[in-house]
Amino acid sequence: MTESRLRSAAKRQSELLALIRSASGGLLVAGLAGRFGVSLETLRRDLRSLETQGTITRAYGTVQANESGAFETALSERADSNVAEKERIAEAVVARLGEAQTLYIDEGFNPSLVAKKLPEDRQLTVVTPSLPIAMILVGKPNIKPIILGGRVRSNTLGVVDEWASEMLSRLTIDLAILGANAVSIDRGMSTPDPAVAVIKRAAVQASIRRFFIGAHNKFGLASFVRFADISDFELLITGRELSVTRAKAFRGTGTSLLRV
Questions:
Q1: What's residue 247's pLDDT?
Q2: Which residue has the higher pLDDT, 252 or 57?
Q3: Which of these three, 45, 65, 85, is where a domain ends?
Q4: Does residue 70 fall inside a structural domain?
Q5: Which of the ends of the chain has fewer CB neighbours closer than 10 A, N or C?
Q6: d(C-alpha 49, C-alpha 107), whole Å
Q7: Domain closes at, from 65, 84, 99
Q8: Sheet strands side by side (includes 27-28)
């Protein structure tokens, strides 16, 4: 390939990645070739290149942007993605609370579904860094919400920074329910924002038991900042959309993984 063609391909791939990142949820691959005025073969080559770089994931004729240190989806976009799967995950969490009386519920859309489904016929104290989750819980009888103090991120309405981590360091929590932007056998749990990673790490350290919750498309990826190993978690809960092969690979490390 000539130098000019390489530059043209790099420019097209950059524009393609920007388009995929701007979309809410995934994009259909079939409609992208005409949009860029290239053949389907050329488009697929571009997508393979982006996938090799770790910036996108392709599945079932669709393509979706992976989160990284330079890119993170907004909470509103997450609310439109894999909703049925996330509902099932939330139900599975609530069914496995056991005797926990104090919970940590992470920021994010999937954790907010857990908050909505919490039983109201038992006393629970719930610590959260999420303003939306605090608002969900404040009107529930028998549930005492405690929100961490600190800087609020506009992207997710989650609380970060030193005050929040200091508060967590003083607590002992029965069960933490945590999400991540990416889950890897080799690189563990990770997130794009170092400030968020600090809070998640503090929650891991403050809790006796830990569940990871996340849709299938979080698995097999690595984001910018690692905050925990998969072995730190009692259980990983995801949807049955996660392939049997990938689930088997995670279980092969000794990790307990539930597909619902």
A1: 97
A2: 252
A3: 65
A4: no
A5: N
A6: 32
A7: 65
A8: 27-28, 62-65, 56-59
